[in-house]
Amino acid sequence: MKTKLSVTLGRLKLKNPVIAASGTFGYAEEFKDFLDLKKLGAIVTKTLTLKPRQGNPAPRTCETPAGMLNSIGLENPGLEIFIKSKLPFLKRTGVPIIMSIASEEEPEEFLELVARINLIKEAAAIELNISCPNVRGKDNLISQDAEATYKIIQEVRKITDKVLITKLSPNVTSISAIAKSAAEAGSDALALINTLGGMSIDIENRRPKVAAGIAGLSGPAIRPVAVKMTWEVFNAVKLPIIGMGGIMDTASALEFMIAGATAVGIGTANFIHPGVGAEIAAGLKNYLLKNKISDINKLIGSLEI
Amino acid sequence: MKNFQLQAKILAQTKIKNSYWRCTLRAAPIARLARPGQFVNIKISAGLTPLLRRPFSIHGISGDKLTLLYEVVGQGTQILAQKKAGESLDIIGPLGNGFELKSARPALIVAGGMGAAPLLFLATKVKTLVLVGAKTKEQLLCVQEFKKSGCRVKISTDDGSAGFKGRVSELLKHNLAGYNTIYACGPKPMLKAVAEVAKKYKLPAQLSLEEHMACGIGACLGCVVKTKDGLRRVCKEGPVFLAEDLIW
Fold first, then answer.
1. Could you count the other beta carbons within 10 Å of the beta carbon of residue B239?
2. So what's the ipTM on this one?
3. pLDDT (tens digit, 9 = 90+) per residue, B216-241?
4. Is the pTM of this model over 0.90?
5. For residue A304, is it within any domain?
6. Chain A residues within 8 A (CB-CB) of chain B?
7. Which of A63, A89, A145, A294 would you label with A172, given CA atoms 20 to 30 Å apart?
């Protein structure tokens, strides 16, 4: 039986729905010993800013029940150094590269970043990270404000034909309201969810276990929240969704697709099983064969409720 | 250097004393490549508890076998200590940079507490004087093993229950004459003290650091330390750093 695994995010065609999520896959080279990178549908870069960022003080991570907290603070070498020292390897993989970007001074920095990325032929899409909880004040994310979300996407949309993905925060009252704003402003796809705000305390010294205090929770612990938000957004807007949050294996990836995700982001699982992305891509194919489903697109949003 | 992920069979699990254990694994590709100072990252249980891998220094190599020395300190090591010979562990390695062995000789080795873990492997290559320090006699590790590997050993304990009474960094001051390089591993305050001694006597020191890690392969950027050149990853640019490059 022939099975179709390819999906599309706007004009971006992926050979399968498995995407290595931003911030959990370095710049791909770190993973080359553990899987055939070509088996991935796409790779999202660690979020880039215009200038290099040093990030937050250590300790930056700690383990929590079925999850982990991180506050890296968007450490990255800046766009120019990325282009010189990281992009060549990514290009050679032949896998679509999604450039994740963030800005300390929007909209100016976003527009400058996008103008530069417009010139990179191999950049298949741009992911606007307007939901990183570890910069720009803790309760002041663009993606927590429907109007600010609309404004920034609209400005970026005006200057680029690249496929535009908007990454949304779960730390909101209604993620559907933000998703609608993003859709109206011209985003081609949505990625959700970024990490949930969290905290963990060392009771011996009464200090937070992550130096920054508040951090972002990821891993299987947040999966039910992420599946629910995927389902909500699927019902609220027509845009394709990259669903993510605690995907560890094929079964958890399928949950997101049935809830309405067109593609799935693999995050924390990359830290534990660096080859898991390729395993999930193969697992999805086996699921289709076993269940006699000819096209993975038939699964998207197929939840019966 | 190439990394491997494999199922390593546990060949032996031995309780040394108190909460200290030694574990021997069969992991041929890793054992063949590993250098002193490198580490492996282990998924201790197949399930979600603990979720992340745990890093362990490579304590020794023999053919296709790899030995670890660990102390039961938390959930991960508790579960590890219950594993029996014949069971397997999902391990990744060899990770990190390891000690630079071409440094000026003669060198001396300073092991504080669990710092003995990577240093015994080093001692088999650099047969020299080893200073072994701990809080008490009960917590001294690998004294016989260092001797068996062809090293001379001097001991310090904070409470004076064995050897020199005081910090191992104090013992270091009394034994520096004639040495050109220091290798050290141990708790952070001890390493800081060793770095100060090294600076004072203008000796290069290679220090093996420890930090919380999520991935161990350079992707998560969780395990950074401050250096003169900015933040560096303990798992990738480390765990061994030159003392003069570190900012404490």
1. 28
2. 0.95
3. 999 999 999 999 999 999 999 999 99
4. yes
5. no
6. 23-26, 30-31, 33-34, 46, 54-55, 58-63, 65-68, 70, 72, 75, 219-220, 268, 270-275
7. A63
